[in-house]
């Protein structure tokens, strides 16, 4: 009986986590300050059925070559953090179902700042709505504090980075699905943001077809060599050999910029 209750507890935890993530909409999901900009707004919308309270703060993170972030301790933070130059209001928001709240960000630049890209992550912590008693049988508490974060960036005297697509191949993910594995190389002091798209031309065919797309793919300054796997679109099959053309095209402040494009021969 005890094992059954433990399983029930983990199922409930999984559902609770997904529900909380689905209840908060954040727009935009990335903020970039340039030389002239001083303020920005981030909008929070509670699209759930319960009132929620969120506490705001800052988190320092390091981007990883294969995606995701590593949280940094204070002694690991380098000179490019931005949080100490930022002010935000309010620091805590309470949102009724369907309610929207603007968070105001203000950048206070200092004289003599080195050229480069500064970044910290704006953190939103969902506070518990009610206190749940721990059960000895379940052994866990569902009253978790969940958090979400978005990057906030300031660029001083930087130019667009250079990105090269180095290699592409067909691979298999942990679930046994065929994916397109891409290796990229970035240089320069600024991060890149863009759309990765793969077109497939089967052997003997004349037309190209889109087989994979990933929007808002970022490569940050601390990452020189990045790797990513693109899921193949439903209904698309890459068999019999052919050519795979991969393009990394800039988005947002880099729109209309083609970072890199290469075509690879694929034999399978």
From TrEMBL:
InterPro entries registered for this protein in UniProt: Ig-like_fold, PapD-like_sf, Periplasmic_pilus_chap
Coiled-coil regions, chain positions: none
Keyword Signal: yes
Keywords assigned: Signal
Record bears the keyword Signal: yes
Protein name stated in the entry: P pilus assembly protein, chaperone PapD
Residues making up the signal peptide according to the UniProt record: 1-22
Superkingdom classification of source: Bacteria
